[in-house]
Amino acid sequence: MKTNIGLYLALLFGVFSLSTSAIFVRLANAPSAIIAFFRLFFASLILLPFLLSSKQNKRQLLTLSKKQWALGILSGLLLSAHYVMWFESLRHTSVASSTVIVTLQPLFSIAIGYIFLKERFHKLAIGGCLIAIMGCFMIGWGDFQISSQALFGDLLALLAAGVISIYFFIGQAMRKELSAVPYSIISYLSSSLFLGCYALIEGNSFIGYPQAAWMAFGGLALISTVFGQFIFNWLLKWIPATMISMSILGETIGTCILAYFILNEAISFQQGMGITTILLGLVLFFISPQIHKDR
């Protein structure tokens, strides 16, 4: 049985690690589908020794039911669809619009949990969620665009938020019977396969990138994925998908801070106010009474 403080520290570490994603993507300077492909493919290779060295993990993988295989591959499809729709949205709308709309993910998670899992949230938690999302909008408001093309991009970003919410709920269901390593490898490998096919359709090359790009791919795989997203997969056994989704709003804060120190990007007064608002919302959400389920 894990202690709450230990789980929340792991969650904080995962959010900070995930915050490096945008930095590594900027440094990679490669096609989006290629970045996502190598991110998940290399993450699978990093986790592979932990699968092969554990009898429990190997036994679980060899005894998976058809339903578990189907759910694992479906989670990979959803993860790749999330990336494809999000990346495609960036072609039609501003980075700020797309990124901020993707942060609406907790609203999808709350709705899914309420409808299908009978999860009930305290008013303080819902208020904290809305306040944190408002903070994300404050950070990106100045770069929003209004046009029919931008509207299409915003819609794709919204769909990407919904898809990644479903991904976490599938992970929550699978983690009840499956360890984090075999589940993550199935999800990441199948997702990289789908992304590889998409990259081929787009006509992207898998070779010929400079050393800096390969180092960024490795950073995305190790820090952003294994130390970030994989931590979330591991925590899904003890922390509801809704709380995981909510915590990811903290990625916006981490990215702003890292961009300040690594990319020399200044933090404006408006961004500072947005960061403060997000922190307030997250504090209210996590100090509220725990989620309960209707009988």
TrEMBL record:
Keywords on record = Membrane, Transmembrane, Transmembrane helix
Q: Does the keyword Transmembrane helix apply?
A: yes
| Sequence ranges assigned to domain EamA in this UniProt record | 8-140, 152-286
Output the superkingdom of the source species: Bacteria
What is an example of a Pfam family matching this protein? EamA
- Which InterPro entries does the annotation name? EamA_dom, EmrE-like
Sequence intervals crossing the membrane: 31-48, 69-87, 99-117, 124-144, 150-170, 182-201, 213-236, 243-263, 269-287
**GO CC annotation:** membrane
Q: Say which family it is in.
A: Belongs to the EamA transporter family.
Kindly provide the name given to this protein in its UniProt entry: DMT family transporter
